[in-house]
Amino acid sequence: MKRIDCYILYSGNSDTAQTVNDLQATEMTRKITLFGAEAPSVQPESCDFLPVADPFGSRSMKAIATHSQAPYTLLYTKDTTLNLGMFALERMTRILEDSGAGMVYADHYQLKDGRQTIAPVIDYQQGSLRDDFDFGSVLLLRTDALKEAAARMKADYRFAGLYDLRLKLSQRYELTHINEYLYTEVENDTRRSGEKIFDYVDPKNRDRQMEMEAACTEHLKEVGGYLKPEFESIGFDRDNFEYEASVIIPVRNRIRTIRDAIRSVLTQKTDFRFNLIVIDNHSTDGTTEAIDEFADDTRLVHLIPERHDLGIGGCWNLGVHHAQCGKFAVQLDSDDVYKDEHTLSTMVRAFYEQNCAMVVGTYMMTNFDMQMIPPGIIDHREWTPENGRNNALRINGLGAPRAFYTPVLREVKVPNTSYGEDYALGLAISRRYQIGRVYDVVYLCRRWDDNSDAALDVVKMNAHNLYKDRIRTWELQARIAMNRVAGNPTSY
User: Fold this and answer.
1) Side-chain half-sphere of 212: how many Cα atoms within 13 Å?
2) Among 17-26, 310-319, 374-383, the range of highest mean pLDDT
């Protein structure tokens, strides 16, 4: 029955002793090993200690793979108390055996400030390339699969070792989600969803992010999804456009912010003709009347869809396919504003200077009163001409504002959703064309309670993450197929 070697993160937290006791009480555990940078002063009875400088670095993962001898290896990635459900380990090993998977992970509960909440997770798929994919804190692996995957790890990462390991695992084994609540973990990060989603662009995490990019790029090369920095050229001479640029604002019930957004467009200073297309998606709070206050300005095109099934993406399609849409379509969310009167000129100029089909700017996070808040300036420097379109499959967004060469956008078309539609466009367009970058702040992104992602519950967050993983899966499949046609098949 003792078929699992357990590895528990140790960072000095006294709660670890309780986790060790619970694991020792099961009939499944063969040996328990703490791993971390510094050994405990009083080591729990019958426990080993594995010294590793970087707990989730490459050397740590390889050491665990070498050290584990039981048929199964459990990795607990937190240092807080773990409470296993009744027969949880028996259930997890049974499913590993029945499914032939390389790893299983499960839904669970979380204790936040003493209150128990559900923490369901989502299915892993080919496009689940985010380095922050949430498996929960309990990973149960087949030890033979762990050893095989670890043997293929080439780099020596400080931060991306576990990420590299699970990418290697996913190349040859299934990572199986058990839709059952099998344990309870303590969660100390009680921030709202809108506060967590920008962790990956926080400058203090730059070293970590560069390692994650390297691991993901290696994975893409190994599965045949990597794209070289070779792009199709654009002449910008397709179709005849009355306007050089159109700002597109989809809006529904934003009475508190829509006037600011419109003013920030109409005060732009350019040496070309531009207009503003506002797609008012059946607002009921006075937004429609607020837009009409600007009706005297002939540059404003106020559209109210005949359809009632449009999300943000559908509204974008309506605006982009309108006869008065300009050569370049530039995004502005109804919550936000352009930094100054030069934003539109800066974005349009980038198309010609960088010969690209899409341009992404740099924004500053602000509160409702447009005062800077952490993490401050978001420049998405992880997007580079050399590797940006590969790294885009790992990260969760591409920045703002976004602008598009209209003929290309009309071909690709925007998914009719209200989440992830811009990300899907960036991936699809970058498959063929360069995406240009503006690293000066040109956009103010307001964070307030009415933002669509300010405080989502776990079910909504999971739906968003599952959809973005599906977008990545479709895009990765398309890139693999494109490489095969070009004679660049998968390498493993």
Assistant:
1) 21
2) 310-319
168: its two tokens: 């290697």
Considering the four listed CATH numbers 3.30.70.2190, 3.90.550.10, 3.40.190.10, 3.40.50.300, the one that applies to the domain covering 4-190 is 3.90.550.10
CATH of domain 245-479: 3.90.550.10
The string of DSSP letters for 296-323 reads TSTTEEEE--S-S---HHHHHHHHHTST
Which position has the token pair 């128990």? Answer: 116
Q: How far apart, in whole angstroms, are the C-alpha atoms of residue 366 and residue 359?
A: 22
Domain chopping of the chain, boundaries? 4-190, 245-479
Share of the chain above pLDDT 90, in %: 84
Distance CA 469, CA 475 (A): 10
**DSSP secondary structure code for residue 152 in this structure:** T
Helix (H) or strand (E) holding 363: strand 358-366
Integer Cα distance of 8 and 301 in angstroms:
60
Q: What is the distance between the alpha carbons of residues 390 and 190, in angstroms, rounded to a whole number?
A: 32
- Tell whether the model's pLDDT for residue 170 goes beyond 70: yes
Per the prediction, the chain carries an average pLDDT of 93
Dihedral (CA of 309, 396, 400, 215) sign? negative
- Distance from C-alpha of 154 to C-alpha of 189, rounded to nearest angstrom: 32
Distance CA 330, CA 247 (A): 5
338-344-349 Cα angle (round to 5):
140
The contacts of residue 418 (CB under 8 Å, 6+ apart) are 311, 312, 313, 452
Tell me, what's the pLDDT at 151? Answer: 98
Residue located via tokens 């070309």: 272
Contact 102, 172 (CB under 8 A): yes
Please state whether beta strands 300-303 and 274-280 pair in parallel, antiparallel, or not at all (unpaired): parallel
Supply 234's token pair.
């654009």
DSSP state of 474: H
Establish whether domains 4-190 and 245-479 are of one fold. yes
As a whole number of angstroms, the distance between CA 424 and CA 226 comes to: 17
pLDDT of res. 12: 86
pLDDT tens-place string over residues 288-327 = 999 999 999 999 999 999 999 999 999 999 999 999 999 9
Q: Is the pLDDT of residue 482 over 70?
A: yes
19 — phi, psi (to 5°)? -60, -45
